[in-house]
């Protein structure tokens, strides 16, 4: 016969009414003589620690599960957060390589204190070199969040190695983002070291589609003297400037160069001259956008000028027939067509 009993500490059963500490839930227990029935096996025992650990790792590798874990990390209780973190210990490398799991680690770094996540940097350090992590498709994101949110004592080893391989990583499709993060979130010494490397390879960075991203961050975050040196080197080479401005991924770096040049009249004059000299970059969409952003008057002149040239030829026969008045009218018409063509081009 079934009798309700209370489960005591570590699962020992005690008689009803006896104090039990801490207070656990009440469940139905059965005597050894009870027959084995479907009802007697309805209540399954709690999951083992191994099963719970596998459950968290499974969720971390699923689209819906990783979102659930991120929500618990941000809004859950301290105990829930600690439970998730305790099960990530020893599995950081595997989770960081997961297309879904890396988001769990990223979010933990964003919303939790670095003191609770020391194991993340320790396990990544023992897994692979910072250069290899920076090139990894998914683990690089965890490294970037560490650089962004962790104090320097936790990230110094990683940043030192990234700076040491600045040239190699800056030309890598994925690795360049870690260099950009070091440039943006590193201390003054770190920024100056990266800026020195960029300055020594300024022409290579300017014409490389990935190096341009690092060059852009250097022009924004480097110390002022290094900014001036880089801007002067770029403005002093017509060919390199043209290549950088003509590239789609060179848009941001050219814009940052223009911002630095505005602080120095002689440099500002030189950059404006280079833009006027290379108006043909407006033949591409990003070239038009660049001119429109930096020098709107030059972009307008270039766009309307192209329409005037295309609209003059059909009007020549009419000008001969109708004389000077018709010629003046046609010129006004051509000019209006040019403005309309310019507006249509930008709206598109």
From TrEMBL:
Region (Disordered) residue spans: 307-348
Regions of compositional bias (Basic residues) in chain numbering: 316-325
GO cellular component: a single term: cytoplasm
Xref: InterPro entries: ARM-like, ARM-type_fold, PUM-HD, Pumilio_RNA-bd_rpt
Bias (Polar residues) ranges: 330-340
Domain of life (superkingdom): Eukaryota
A molecular function GO annotation: mRNA binding
GO BP of this protein: post-transcriptional regulation of gene expression
Keyword terms of this UniProt record: Repeat
Gene3D superfamilies for the chain: Leucine-rich Repeat Variant
TM ranges: none
Pfam families: PUF
PUM-HD domain sequence ranges: 1-298
Pumilio repeats: 87-122, 161-196
PANTHER family hit by this protein: RNA BINDING PROTEIN PUMILIO-RELATED
Name of the protein in question: PUM1 protein
The organism of origin for this protein: Symbiodinium natans
Gene that this polypeptide is encoded by: PUM1
């Amino acid at each position: 016969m079934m009798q309700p009993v209370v489960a005591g500490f570590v699962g020992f059963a005690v008689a009803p009414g006896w104090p039990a500490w801490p207070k656990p839930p009440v469940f139905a227990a059965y005597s050894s003589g009870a027959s084995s029935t479907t009802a007697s096996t309805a209540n399954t025992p709690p999951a083992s620690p191994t099963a719970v650990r596998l459950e968290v790792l499974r969720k971390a590798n699923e689209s819906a599960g990783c979102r659930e874990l991120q929500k618990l990390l941000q809004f859950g209780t301290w105990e829930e957060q600690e439970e998730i973190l305790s099960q990530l210990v020893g599995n950081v490398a595997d989770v960081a390589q997961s297309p879904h799991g890396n988001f769990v680690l990223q979010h933990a770094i964003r919303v939790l204190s670095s003191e609770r996540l020391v194991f993340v940097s320790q396990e990544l350090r023992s897994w692979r070199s910072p250069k290899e992590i920076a090139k990894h498709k998914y683990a690089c994101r965890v490294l970037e969040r560490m650089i962004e949110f962790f104090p320097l004592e936790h990230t110094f080893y990683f940043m030192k190695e990234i700076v040491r391989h600045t040239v190699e990583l800056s030309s890598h499709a994925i690795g360049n983002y870690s260099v950009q993060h070091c440039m943006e979130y590193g201390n003054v010494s770190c920024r100056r070291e990266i800026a020195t490397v960029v300055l020594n390879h300024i022409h290579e960075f300017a014409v490389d589609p990935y190096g341009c991203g690092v060059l852009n961050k250097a022009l924004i975050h480097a110390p002022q003297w290094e900014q001036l040196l880089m801007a002067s080197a770029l403005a002093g080479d017509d060919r390199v400037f043209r290549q950088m401005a003509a590239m789609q991924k060179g848009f941001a770096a050219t814009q940052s160069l223009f911002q630095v040049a505005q602080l120095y009249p002689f440099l500002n004059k030189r950059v404006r001259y280079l833009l006027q000299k290379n108006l043909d970059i407006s033949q591409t969409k990003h070239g038009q956008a660049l001119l429109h952003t930096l020098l709107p008057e030059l972009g307008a002149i270039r766009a309307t000028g192209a329409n005037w040239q295309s609209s003059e030829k059909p009007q020549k026969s009419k000008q001969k027939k109708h004389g000077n008045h018709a010629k003046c009218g046609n010129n006004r018409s051509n000019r209006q067509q040019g403005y309309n063509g310019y507006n249509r081009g930008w709206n598109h």
